[in-house]
Amino acid sequence: MKTIIEPFRIKSVEPIYFNTKEQRTEILQNACYNPFLIHANEVLIDLLTDSGTSAMSSNQWAGIMQGDESYAGSSSFFRFEKTIQELTGMPLVIPTHQGRAAEKILFSILGGKGKYFVSNTLFDTTRANIEYSGAEGVDLVCEEGKHPSIPAPFKGNMDVLALKKFIAEKGAANIPLCIITVTNNSGGGQPVSMQNIREVKAVCKANQIPLFIDACRFAENAYFIKLREEGYADRSVPDIVHELFSYAEGCTMSAKKDAFANIGGFLAMRDEALAQQCRNLLIMTEGFPTYGGLAGRDLEAIAIGLTEVMDEHYLQYRIRSIEYISNKLIAAGVPVMQPAGGHAIYIDAKAFLPHIPVEQYPGQALVGALYVHGGIRGVEIGSLMFGKYDEQHKLVPAKLELVRLAIPRRVYTQSHIDYVSEVIIEVFEERKKIKGLIITEEAPMLRHFTAKLKPIE
Questions:
Q1: pLDDT tens, residue by residue, 317-356
Q2: Which residue of 64, 164, 276, 438 is surrounded by the most CB atoms within 10 Å?
Q3: Is the CB of residue 118 less than 8 Å from the CB of residue 135?
Q4: Sequential DSSP letters for 318-336
Q5: What share of the chain is helix, strand, coil (3-state, %, to 5)?
Q6: H runs (alpha helix) in 111-208
């Protein structure tokens, strides 16, 4: 099999600023061991997130020059709206400045004390917006998704039996929404099968619970369905995408992921009454319904990106890039989520650092070690991000202790990825030297963004 090459040429570049291990040790200490507090020009390879960090295409940059900045009735909005209507089959499209703004609007309307939102796995801002409304977010990932080292084709699936049981216990009237995240970000970037979406839809329909898709990485999920699910090998990605959305009453999306955009998002749905409520709140918090907190140029870039992302040559390259680094790490004995996901490498920090207990945040300790050793910035997806406290203020840990290294789209080359692999393997060989951390300062919600930590003495 020939090498799968990048399906693009590089037209513009930006410099990487190099520093030393000694300098990075001091930088991490000054940042209180939180990668979010490190300045970007102090990072060599930035894998903190794939959100808003992609390289836009020449067509997107050309579209930006055509952006119509009219306050109301912008022609850029109508191109944006038509693209999303054709993509999702949903007639009602509401732009927002990013995905969490769409979540804020939706859950402010549907949430409240005594309500439950069920999902395969909610990501951080989704859960925070649910909890801020007074409601509770409930993760019902399938059993395979709870075991990082055991491969399975669709570890992002929702546990359908658990869903039925939860509805029976809490009552359908108390569950305003079921949400399927594609791909399952908190669960290791793992895809959801079309069969699972159909089965969840059937349960929701029987209980009159609307089904929404968190569609940040819809194209990557569709390509996994094409590769792994029986009956889809000969179907095009756009066709698979259309079927995926056909089972949902609505969706939220951060266009900073699979739309290649640096900013933006949207709500799309079929319910006119709910859409009107959302628009009313949008006007108060984001802007007029034909711009929703975005410049016209961003609406243009998103519309173009949503089409470009479904190119199968790009998706083949994208999925294979993640698989490439995953295979190198597995060969070296590094414990990673298997099989490889679509947008990131997920290291099993609990298995990587078995000498560090969960209350000392092994994922965050590993993130710091990767930065010091090689200038790589990742993010912890474990008990710092998702941990809670019980009534005695004792940590209730997350189900998984992961470190995510999210690969920005169309940004890094294979040599960058090889360097990342080398750094991870070298840190793995010296893993016993890594110490745990304790929190010295934290916010009540979404603490991982701003928390300050220090090493265990």
A1: 999 999 999 999 999 999 999 999 999 999 999 999 999 9
A2: 64
A3: no
A4: HHHHHHHHHHHHHHTT--B
A5: 45, 15, 40
A6: 124-132, 160-170, 194-206
Please check whether residue 365 is in contact with residue 437, taking contact to mean a CB–CB distance below 8 angstroms.
yes
The number of domains in the chain is: 2
Both structure tokens of 250: 């609505």
Residues 371 and 377 sit within 8 Å (Cβ to Cβ): yes
298 and 396 in a single domain? The answer is no
CB under 8 Å to 133, separation ≥6 — which residues?
107, 108, 110, 111, 112, 115
Place of tokens 């029976």: 168
Decide the pairing of beta strands 402-406 and 344-348: antiparallel
Residue 110 lies in a domain: yes
Burial of 78 (0-12, 13-18, 19+ CB in 10 A): middle
CA 292 to chain centroid = 22
For tokens 């939180």, what's the residue?
A: 34
Question: Strand pairing of 211-214 and 250-254?
Answer: parallel
With a pLDDT cut of 70, the percent of the chain lying above it is: 100
Question: For residue range 295-304, what is the model confidence (pLDDT) as tens digits?
Answer: 999 999 999 9
- On whether both 415 and 363 belong to a single domain, the answer is yes
Indicate the pTM of the whole model: 0.94
Helices (H), 332-412: 349-352, 362-374, 383-386
d(CA 113, CA 115) in angstroms, rounded, equals: 6
Domain boundary among 308, 341, 374: 308
